[in-house]
Predict the 3D structure of the following.
Amino acid sequence: MTKSRIELLDVVALTVDLPEYNLYRGQVGTVVELLAGGAAFEVEFSDACGGLRLRFGRTYESVGLRPEQIMVLHFEPAFPDPVPEMVSA
């Protein structure tokens, strides 16, 4: 089951381009603050830690966004099958 609410520390992706902030659709950030009673969110974008390039996890932009400008990323199956089915030939 997928959740419909955006929560603090959710990992999100932009669904729109924000060229005024040098941010583009698909970029990934973290919700760090709930604004206006959950009607908006402060999302922090930072460079990656680790990987092949030397990066330090530093914030390069923090922007207030509306729910329609972001989508929550899920790292687990939405509907896990608790018992795998056996297929017989």
User: Anything to note?
Assistant: Residues 49 and 57 are 5 Å apart (CA to CA). Strands lie at 11-14, 28-35, 40-46, 59-65, 70-72. The chain has no helices and five strands. The first strand starts at residue 11 and ends at 14.
